[in-house]
Structure formats: C-alpha cells, structure tokens
Write a structure and sequence with these properties.
Chain lengths: 476, 307
C-alpha cells in the first residue's frame, strides 16, 4: 500500500510582506538612491518585493552612522551592557522564529523543515553564545584588554542568509564593533526583518546598518575608507577580489570561501548512518553549502553496496514546495545558479562520468534540479575539482587510508571533510592529516556556536564561531 | 546461507554486519518524526494502524471474561462506527488461546500466543517446546517466542539459533514471531545481530519486546529491525515482518512508526501481514483521533469502550 503524504504547507500568513523595502541606516528604514531590484521566490518565480539598491553615497551614510554609533555609544558601553542587547535579540529571534523561518524559505527556496529546525535555532544559538562572551573578552586569550576594530563591513551569501548574518553580526557586536552588512541580492528579506528585530530590541541607532544591493554595493563597502574590518563569506573569486582591494590598507580581513569537501567512507563504516551522512552532506540546503560533502570517497571494497544504498535512499527524498513541511530538497536559489549547476553537470557527462538522478517530478515553475550523483569520477574531472554549489555528488574510490588522504587533500580548497569508520584510532589518524578546517567523524554538516569554522588554502582565512571567532573582531 | 554452518561461522557473520552509529541512528528517527501527516493521509494511516494492532493482554490476572471482552473489542473497536477496521490479532498467554479462538470465531482475527517461558525465557528447551505445542494445539495462529538473552549476551549465538529453529519446528505452519527483548540487549549492534540471527533461524516476524522490560519498543530500535528485514530480503529474497511492542500508546507515535516503515523498508511492509503494533492502550487513542478527524470534535474517554 502506498503511503501518500497529503500536502502540509506551512502558512505564509505569519509573514507580513511589504511591496518594497528600503535600507536600514542609523536605526531607520530609508530609501536607497540606486535602481530598485526585485526579489523573487525561487520556488515559483513570484516577485516577493522590490528592494532598494544602495549606491556608494548610501554606503557612505551607513558607514558614517556606524562610526557615530561606535564612537558615541557602542564602544563606551560595558560588555555586560552590550550582552543585554544581544540576549534580547536572541530571545526575539526565538519568539519570532516561525516568521523568520517562513520568510527564509520563501526568499531562499530552502525547505521549511531546515529553516525551522536548523537555520533559525542556530541563529538564536549564535546570538546567545556571543552574548555570553561580551563581558568576558579579557579572558578570551587575545590579550589582557582586547579592543574592537571599530566599524566592520560584512558581506554575506545567499545560501544561509540569516545564519551567515548571525555568524557575522553576533561576534562583531559582542566585541564592541558596529557593523554595516550587505546581504546577497537574491536573499535580503530576512536581513531586513532582522533590522526590525534590532529596532524591537531598542538596539542603539547605527550599531547595525543593512545596505542591500549586488556586487557594486559590496565593492563600495569593502573599499570605503571608514571601514576597519572586512568580513566576507562567498565565492573564492570574489574573495580574491576583496583581498586585492584591501591590500595595502590597514583593514583586517577574514574570508570564508568555497569548498570541495571529501566525505570519506571506509569499509568498516556504519553503512546506514554513512548513507544518511552522504545525503545530508550534499543534499542538505540543495547542496548550497560551502562545506558540502560534494566529493564522496568510498573504499572500493564497499563501493557497490554504498552506491546501491545511496541511490535507494535518494529515491525517497521529497523535492518540491519549500513551505511544505515534508519537503527534503527545495528550490535552487536563482536562475543564474541553476544555469551553473546544469553547465557543470553537462561537463561531467561530456568528460565521461556516469550521471544518475533520483526519480522525481520537478515543479513546472521555479528553479529546480533533481538530486544527482556522478559515478566513475576521477581527480582529473572538472566535477571533482570545481565547486558546483548544488545537489550534485561526485563519487570517487580509494584503496587505502593513505590514498584517501592524498585524494581528499588534492584540491585547492580545504574547508571541511568527513570520515566514516567504526575505528576510533583511524578517525584521529585521518583528522591529523586532512588539510581541512572542519573534520566531521561519523556525521556531517553539524554546526554549533562553540565550534570554530573556517578553511585552509583557497577556502579562506580566519575562523568564525567559538572562542576563535572573537579574534576576527578584536584588535590585539 | 553459509553463516549457519558452524558456531564460529555464525559468530563471524553476525560480527561482520555493518555497525550502527548510535548518534546517527537516533538522529535519523528524529528527522523522520518531523513528517507532518495530515487530512487524508492521516485518516488512511489511522485505519492502517488499527488494522495492524495485536491487541494484547498478558497479565497474571487475566481471566476468560477479560479475554472475551478483549476479543469483542477486537472485532468491533468502535461500536459507533461500523467502518472502523478490525485489529489484526489478539495476543494472550497459551492457556487463554482456546477462549480467544472461540470468542473470535470466523472474524478473521488471528490469535497470537506468547510461549517459550515468556517473558524471561528461563526454562529448559523441553518446556519451551511443550509450551509452544500447547498453544499451537489450542489453535494459536501465531506464536510469539522469546529468545534466550542470557545465551545471546554470553556470545552463545548457536544456542539461540538452535532454540529458534526448534521452536519453529514445533510451530509447524503456525507463524513464528521472535521477541528479542531489545531492552535487555541494550546496544544497537546487538539488536542488529539478534535480528539477523532470528531471521536466519526462520523467524516469520521479528519483534522488539515483551512489554515487561523497560525500555520496550523505541523508534531507533525499530529502525534497525526495519533495516534488517529490508537487507535480509535483498540478500535472500524472503520477506520477514516487524513488530514493535510495548510503549507505543498514542496515535501520533503510531503514525511516526508508519512513516519510518514507509521510508525505510518501503511500502511492501505497510500491511498487517508484515507490520504489527503490540499494544493495548494504543487502540483507544487511534479511535479518538479517528473520530476527531471525521467529526471535528474530541470526545472524552467515556465515549470509547474499555477492553
């Protein structure tokens, strides 16, 4: 008997969408001077709202507001006092969690199950965690009296709009900096809802400023002489451009960039859980995850069994309406990203890898890509080297632990890795040798505010999260 | 299978099964528990769950009267609604089989009897076999035996295997459910090994618990059983049923189990022939939810009959 799950859509009524949005500068919503642009729902291509584009002038005003707030208010406030605001923000995030989750899924395309159970709870957790540090910075190990940088310019990507905002704003504010943040142009809505939350929390004006727009707005922010610190999460290409822009200035920079993580499955792995970990590693958030386990390295002796189990599991993934509570894989964030995923998948086929997609019906409208696995991939294939940033898994094999290490490290990236084995000693041996910022053992894509996160090589520099994450926002 | 050619081969086989990562296993069931089953799916699932119940009374104080009352409930769970399905079976002690058999008549509801010195299984093989034969000759359609957990935990897998084979022999054509008492096996690796051991020895069903030991059925343990029957069919072509028993008392939980069956073993198992709930309290909550769904109102417990 077939068990059909009836549609179980989360109601949109909790979200109060406006037809147009401005910028958030000095505690108020103001018009932008650039050309308005549209934010669409990637699941339906429905226009959600018009967004304001911040020009260099607007950015200048935002930086000036942040500077004023820094010198007059925020830098003079005690850590305990700053913590009160951060705790208040964290509590409001929890209270308005449903609204935030629905808006995030609408704007980004990710399933409500993830925005509700992963993104938004983590957002609150990061604010709670860094609120706790605000009055303990002199115990953080970064000098006897560490000081903030001043004004931080922060640019975040579209894959985890709210969570990346939390990773940036929470430690910056806890350390005493003020911020000007630019969300990605396709996913600005929750950042502006966060601005409302700052108002609701009575956060002093100018401590948090949000400017919307695309690359030019970001460039104006990074290049602005009033910025003391630049923090960026996004592509390696843009990260390099930012590094060039700030070279020779006194600005400090942290970059969290791309990845091509190896998820390594040994023959003694707990196979059922490993398959879950592979699925979670690459299909979580449609694979729009910089630390996604996009390269599966399987020991040859269990290759057939792992692939059989993986495909069977992929066939149970539910793709569709991001607001349906039973959806596992949502929409690709933009037409542009969909085109890139398609292009690289076609390259994979042209280079001789074998393509298999989970049997599923994709909606007619919106941006969709079926969960896909490529087998017969070697280190020489582009799909084994380039970040696809979509629900596409490349499968390679290895024979010995040493070969697994060699292949895992043979990439310009080094953000994360996964190891699946029942042997504890092998986990430690592997973790010592993997050149990746995060190594997960018998799990994947687990995040926690207490744990630092960041990359080796072209995956960036600096760490976010945990005690280590404070360093990026302290001059010492 | 080569696994059963010698005690050493059996041990090697069971210890060669892939391990279970506890954290990952529990995380998977937590994710499955977030499925939202509404409206038509819920109505379908509630009826299916009712039809999968082994309505159970296993008490020292059981009497003919109690068993007859339970049988009446099994035939007509909701006297106010004739569209309500019957349960799958009644589950009783061997001395109550004849009474149940008579009370159920031609209803099509099976009588399941526990046997083999239930619940501890601490008796000689001769007595366990006689216990089984008693129940079978009294007319039991299904036998729920317990494994020797002491032998299992001391590593004597062959003894556990041989006992199941012997009881299976005593059952003849009667369906054999093998209770592993997972609450006493404790680790998930043990649960997986006991599942395969039972299936290799000829179990028609593998069952988590007697209901007399805590914890009884849990979602992670049942997930491992479902993975085992799925993989066993892939390996041998033979399909084995699964029965979580004890501790499942709400409709909400029952639906979570059905979702887990659906997404683990697959919909072939969404059938009373292949999946059962060993329960007593569960039925009335299913009936209450069923009535709520059709009328839009909750009724008090007095609107549903006692067993």
């Amino acid at each position: 008997m077939a068990f059909e799950y009836a549609p179980a859509p989360e109601s949109r009524s909790v979200v109060d969408l406006r037809s147009s949005y401005g910028l958030f500068v000095n505690g108020e919503f103001v018009d932008g001077s650039g050309h308005a642009f549209k934010s669409v729902s990637p699941a339906t291509e429905e226009v959600l709202a018009e967004m304001a584009e911040a020009t260099a002038d607007d950015v200048d005003k935002a930086v000036a507001a942040a500077r004023r707030a820094y010198t007059r208010t925020w830098s003079k406030m005690s850590g305990a006092e700053r913590a009160k605001y951060l705790y208040r923000i964290a509590r409001i995030i929890q209270e308005r969690s449903r609204e935030l989750a629905v808006l995030e899924s609408l704007d980004n395309g990710k399933p409500i199950r993830e925005s509700r159970d992963v993104d938004v709870p983590l957002v609150a957790a990061y604010f709670f965690y860094y609120a706790g540090w605000a009055d303990k910075l002199h115990h953080s190990g970064f000098g006897a009296d560490p000081q903030p940088h001043g004004v931080a310019g922060q640019i975040i990507p579209w894959n985890f709009p709210l969570l990346m905002l939390a990773w940036k704003i929470a430690p910056a504010l806890a350390c005493g900096n003020t911020v000007v943040l630019k969300p990605a142009e396709t996913t600005s809505l929750t950042a502006l809802l966060f601005a409302e939350i700052c108002q609701q929390a009575d956060l002093p004006s100018g401590v948090v400023n949000i400017v919307t727009g695309a690359g030019e707005t970001g460039q104006a922010l990074v290049a602005h002489p009033g910025i003391d610190k630049v923090a960026f999460t996004g592509s390696t290409e843009v990260g390099k451009a930012i590094a060039r822009t700030v070279a020779g200035t006194s600005k400090s920079v942290t970059l969290e960039l791309g990845g091509k993580a190896a998820n390594i499955v040994f023959d003694d792995a707990p196979l059922d859980q490993a398959v879950e970990g592979i699925v979670n590693g690459i299909f979580f958030n449609q694979g729009h995850v910089c630390c996604a386990g996009s390269r599966l390295l399987v020991q040859e002796s269990v290759y057939d069994e792992v692939l059989m189990r993986l495909k069977r599991r992929m066939a149970t993934l539910r793709i569709g309406d991001p607001l349906d509570k039973n959806t596992d894989v949502g929409a690709i964030n933009s037409a542009e990203q969909l085109a890139r995923i398609r292009e690289l998948s076609e390259v994979g086929e042209a280079e001789g890898a074998e393509r298999w997609s989970a049997p599923c019906k994709l909606p007619d409208r919106g941006f969709w890509f079926a969960p896909t696995v490529f087998t017969g991939v070697t280190q020489a294939h582009r799909i084994a080297r380039e970040e696809i940033f979509g629900p596409v898994l490349s499968v390679l094999t290895f024979r010995t632990p040493a070969e697994a290490i060699e292949k895992a490290n043979n990439t310009p990236y080094g953000l994360s890795a996964g190891v699946w084995t029942d042997k504890g000693s092998r986990i430690l041996w592997m973790a010592d040798r993997l050149r990746a910022g995060v190594v997960w053992a018998n799990t994947f894509n687990r995040f926690d505010p207490t744990s630092p996160f960041g990359g080796y090589k072209e995956s960036g520099y600096g760490r976010e999260g945990g005690r280590h994450g404070l360093e990026a926002y302290l001059a010492h | 299978m080569d696994a059963v050619t010698s005690p050493a081969a059996l041990r090697r086989f069971l210890h060669g099964l892939p391990g279970v990562d506890q954290v990952g296993c529990e995380a998977r069931t937590a994710t499955l528990s977030t499925r939202s089953i509404k409206t038509t799916s819920k109505a379908w699932a509630l009826d299916l769950a009712i039809s999968m119940i082994d309505l159970t009374t296993l008490e020292g104080q059981d009497t003919h009267g109690k068993v007859r009352a339970l049988c009446a409930k099994a035939r007509q769970p909701d006297p106010a609604d004739p569209t309500c399905p019957q349960v799958a079976a009644i589950c009783v002690y061997p001395d109550m089989v004849a009474v149940a058999k008579q009370a159920l008549g031609a209803s099509g509801i099976n009588v399941a009897s526990v046997a083999t010195a239930f619940p501890s299984g601490r008796s000689s093989l001769a007595i366990k076999l006689q216990d089984t034969r008693d129940a079978v000759s009294a007319g039991a359609d299904e036998i729920d035996m317990v494994i020797d957990r002491g032998a299992f935990l001391s590593g004597d897998y062959q003894r556990v295997y041989d006992e199941i084979v012997a009881v299976k022999g005593a059952c003849g054509q009667t369906h054999l459910k093998v209770i592993m008492e997972t609450g006493e096996l404790v680790t998930y690796d043990n649960v997986r090994r006991a599942s395969w051991l039972s299936m290799l020895a000829g179990a028609d069903f593998i069952k988590t618990s007697t209901g007399k030991v805590q914890p009884a059925a849990t979602m992670p343990v049942t997930l491992i059983l479902l993975e085992a029957v799925r993989d066993f069919r892939d390996a041998t072509g033979r399909m084995v049923g699964v029965k979580p028993a004890g501790g499942i008392s709400t409709a909400k939980d029952a639906i979570k189990y059905l979702v887990m069956v659906n997404e683990t073993a697959g919909d072939d198992w969404l059938d009373p022939h292949w999946f059962r709930f060993g329960a007593s309290r569960l039925l009335n909550d299913l009936l209450m939810q069923r009535t709520k769904l059709s009328t839009g109102r909750y009724s008090g417990p007095d609107y549903f009959t006692l067993d």
